[in-house]
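Hi everyone, sorry if this is the wrong subforum. Our group has a chain we'd like a structural model of before ordering constructs, and none of us has done structure prediction before. Sequence below.
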Amino acid sequence: GEADATATASSWLLLTGGGRAINKAVGLQVGEDGEVLSVAKHARVPEAEVGLKNEGRLLEIVAESRPGLGGVPRLLGRSRRGGLLSISETPIEGAPLLESLSEDNFRQSALTVTGWLIQLAGTGEPRPAAEWRQRLVEEPLERFERTFGLALPELGPRARAALESLSDLPLVLEHRDCSPWNVILSRSGEPALLDWESAEPDGLPFMDLIYFLANSAFVLDGALAGGTTRRSYAGLLDPGSGHGSVAAECLAAYADGIGLDPGCADPMRLLCWLVHSRSEFGQLEADCGGRAPAAEKLRRGVFAGLVEEELG
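Answer:
Right subforum, don't worry. Here is the predicted structure as tokens:
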């Protein structure tokens, strides 16, 4: 049988609830001395089990394939409470990068995360594009055309043409939510990553780093709150700008670390936003009570805007 994910708790501190139907509850198991013993994640509704199942599976894969890699929670067990899945993990101690990220430390923070992502990726040999293109390229493209394509029909065909240049690439462990709010820094400055629910065991290189760099720039520019993500992203694409020079340095270091040409990153930027548009469409749909979002809402989508920026 499966281990009980929440057994022998001295006390529990509930961290999250939330209004969205897909939310989970997260709690800390705290010992008598105040030490955090484990983190439990519990599905509140059946739909939330998909992410928790994936997180548990990915944590096992990382532990087996990257035993020396720090900064990843370890799965302690699974159980069912009220008929719904719970998983228990080792705690990650530290402070979110989001709390300390600044213009002064952006370069060093980004290079530190880059080095960690190189270790996560490993050094696998390139795999024929025919093995992974349908799953990792065509499916996100088709999904984008079915969702945002309703309001922006010209983007799908242009994106498809731009991604024709993708050639053989190694498959890597891909976190798919590597952002300043999920990066935890230990007291020694070593990074760790939380929330592996969306992770892909056989993903593509560069994607996590691109997502991290863009969201870091958005945080520093206040672009998410200010609605200026496209302007911020344009600056990130300019190697002559402050943020752009950091991005270029990190992408070159990542490419060198996993044995690829830095030019391989160019089409991956576009693919990154096609992949992540899925979650944005889901949020827009939920905000509309499960109905299809209006065309204007789709056109104002952050990731749709980044796709447009990549296509020029």
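For your construct planning: The radius of gyration is 20 Å. Residues 1-9, 17-21 have pLDDT under 50 and may be disordered.
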